[in-house]
Design goal:
Blueprint (H helix, E strand, L loop, with lengths): L20 H11 L2 H23 L6 H18 L14 E5 L10 E5 L3 H21 L5 H27 L10 H24 L6 H27 L2 H10 L2 H20 L28 H14 L8 H7 L5 E3 L5 E3 L40 H12 L2 H6 L1 H14 L6 H18 L14 E4 L7 E4 L2 H22 L5 H29 L7 H20 L30 H19 L14 E4 L2 E4 L8 H4 L1 H8 L1
Length: about 650
């Protein structure tokens, strides 16, 4: 295999400062009303701050922090996008100026757009791809964990440039050479090739049960990497202006890509004979590319991160839940508050964030009792999870290894205690359950803990008949019970909403879809492995989910559209699209919300790698120097309840 370990990354585009808050607030006040301007001014303030921080390139910002700032800005920018279609010629001008990332000092290295947003969005998409390429290049590829993070970051970088290609197909952007269709395609192919090459390195080191099949997979991988590099090189070779532009930035780039083409072409030809005929391939041929941690996981942190990556690929950690997070999650910096006011907290302000819990009633309406029984949550016996897990790591590995994962174990223990507190509100308990499930999935590979003389025993009671219980050293019982409680809790939220308001209606539908997702995950992945009480059985869960259809029809009969709320347009609800139920196009807050939903779903599709979230400064557990540590900058989960009175004051 080629010993060249050089990877390419690109610089971010630079831009001139521009004031956005004042002209956009004036525009909202004049086109709509002063009260409407007050409802969205928090978004405008955060938009302005994000761009200022982005322009200043603060020296204290790490690459993950720069990424967080760009993502926050992209969401805010998407929210205000509709305003740019109505800027009149006599309004305060908004001039966006951007410089070429590869040659900003060239006479053609600057582009601008007056009172338009297409250039701004394209440049931000470019910079998101660029920052992920820098994150990938900065990873320590001498470790399995570092190689894995690099692979995933290069994939996300490639995804952003693919998204930029799609953007150029819909919008005409007069910009510098780096913001052209050709360059976006080149960078998409380049970063895809680098991700695939790193994956190929891992595949070559993997010991497959079948030598012939292993050689078959390697031959296909060499051919795939060759094709990606070849297509990238051809784009530069056939366009003299583009090649000259790249050479002005770094003359080694084109030569580097050419050498990759020649190397992988030779290897692909040599290995072509190893490709098996379809008749000789195994019946079950996994087309999922190998994870860097599958076969090089000596380090405990690598084993744990490997699990969260596999789960994210199966979408087990949670569905899209835009509206429920906008109103109820303490971890969402974008909020719908009292009277429909939109709040966007600064990108560098850590959670928890105030929530609009007042939208929920303290009691379920009795009118729903004939549709779906009010599912109680399962209860569990207390358990010192931290002590048993830490002792296991010390016994099986060493004290130093236990210290490397201590932050994760502390957070697991804290969250398990918090999620059982009956005095927590529904939103706070939901946040605890989701976080606990995420980190519980990370430690799943260490079960069963055969090396431990005192493994944890999970005890859970039947939600319907509390006299029955199940006691097992089986993490699937724990996961199944948490999934059950998430489904039950989201059902509580749906049935507690005021159906007479648009916010209550949307929240109820989103919560119900959320509940269906959790019960589906329980039925498909955990119920057979859990062997718990009857409430965790597949037949019982199926009966619960079957009743959701009737409940949705009941909700639809109460939707606040038409004569009850004039001007609202009823839309079919698709949980994984950017549409809003009962959307009012004449309401500026509705336009902002729709823009947020579009940005959320775009980023969800592009930023697929859950492991990269562990690099974020706002992740409760994060990767730091190869260790999994609890985030010292965040408030502990149990502080959330103590902050409720302060949050309620904020809402007034």
């Amino acid at each position: 295999m080629n010993n060249d370990d050089v990877v390419l990354s690109i610089p971010l585009k630079k831009t001139d400062p521009v004031e956005l808050y004042v002209p956009l607030r004036k525009l909202v006040a004049s086109k709509y009303s002063e009260s409407d301007a007050q409802k969205v001014e928090s978004v405008l303030e955060t938009l302005n701050k994000c761009r200022r921080d982005m322009v200043e390139r603060r020296a204290d910002l790490s690459l993950p922090m720069q990424r967080d700032c760009l993502i926050h800005y992209f969401k805010c920018l998407s929210m205000v996008e509709p305003l740019f279609t109505s800027i009149s010629s006599d309004a305060d001008p908004i001039l966006f100026v951007w410089y070429d990332a590869f040659n900003p000092d060239h006479q053609d290295g600057v582009s601008s757009q007056l009172n338009g947003i297409e250039l701004e969005k394209a440049a931000v998409l470019f910079n998101l791809g660029a920052i992920y390429s820098q994150i990938a290049a900065s990873c320590d590829r001498t470790t399995a964990l570092g190689r894995h993070l690099a692979i995933e970051a290069f994939k996300v970088a490639a995804n952003f440039f693919r998204k930029l290609l799609q953007f150029f197909a819909k919008h005409v952007v007069s910009a510098t050479l780096d913001l052209t269709f050709l360059f976006a395609e080149f960078l998409h192919l380049l970063f895809s090739a680098q991700a695939s090459e790193l994956e190929l390195h891992e595949l070559l080191n993997k010991n497959d049960a079948s030598y012939a099949f292993q050689q078959h997979r390697c031959a296909l991988a060499f051919r795939s990497v060759y094709e990606l590099y070849r297509r990238a090189y051809e784009l530069m070779r056939t366009d003299s202006a583009a090649r000259k532009h790249v050479d002005s930035f770094d003359q080694t780039w084109v030569t580097h890509v050419y050498q990759k083409v020649k190397f992988f072409e030779a290897e692909a030809r040599q290995r072509h004979s190893s490709i098996l005929p379809e008749s000789e391939q195994p019946d079950v041929f996994s087309r999922v590319k190998s994870c860097a941690l599958d076969h090089d996981a000596e380090c405990v942190t690598e084993i744990l991160v490997r699990r969260i990556c596999k789960l994210s690929r199966r979408s087990k950690l949670g569905p899209s839940q835009v509206y429920i997070d906008l109103i109820l999650s303490e971890y969402s910096p974008f909020k719908i508050m009292k009277d429909g006011k939109l709040v966007a907290y600064p990108w560098d302000m850590p959670p928890p964030y105030p929530t609009n819990s007042a939208i929920l009633s303290s009691l379920m309406s009795s009118s729903y009792s004939d549709i779906l029984a009010f599912l109680p949550l399962k209860k569990s016996e207390p358990l010192n999870l931290y002590e048993s897990l830490r002792n296991y790591f010390v016994l099986k590995y060493s004290e130093s290894v236990a210290k490397r994962v201590e932050g994760l174990l502390q957070m697991l223990h804290k969250l398990r205690n918090e999620m059982q507190r009956d005095d927590l509100s529904l939103p706070l308990r939901r946040d605890c359950l989701i976080l606990y499930l995420k980190y519980l999935c990370m430690i799943e590979p260490i079960f069963p803990m055969n090396a431990s003389p005192n493994p944890p025993i999970f005890v859970w009671y039947n939600a319907i008949n509390p006299q029955q219980h199940s006691s097992q050293h089986n993490i699937h019982l724990e996961k199944a019970s948490v999934l059950f409680n998430l489904g039950a809790l989201c059902t509580h939220i749906a049935l507690s909403c005021d159906q007479g308001t648009i916010q209550g209606y949307r929240l109820a539908i989103d919560a119900l879809n959320n509940a269906a997702h959790w019960f589906d995950q329980l039925s498909v992945f955990e119920s057979l492995n859990a062997s718990g009480t009857i409430d965790l059985s597949e037949p019982y869960i199926d009966r619960v989910v079957e009743q959701f259809s009737g409940l949705k029809l009941k909700f639809c009969g109460l939707q606040p559209c038409g004569s009850s709320l004039p001007g609202y347009i009823a839309l079919t609800y698709f949980p994984r699209t950017s549409e809003l139920l009962a959307y009012d196009p004449s309401d500026v807050t509705e336009q902002f919300l729709l823009g947020y939903c579009k940005a959320h779903y775009l980023l969800e599709r592009v930023c697929e790698a859950t492991c990269l979230d562990l690099l974020s400064e706002v992740s409760p557990v994060k990767i730091e120097d190869g260790n999994l540590v609890a985030n010292a900058t965040l408030k502990a989960p149990n502080s959330a309840l103590e902050n409720m009175s302060l949050q309620e004051t904020t809402l007034q």
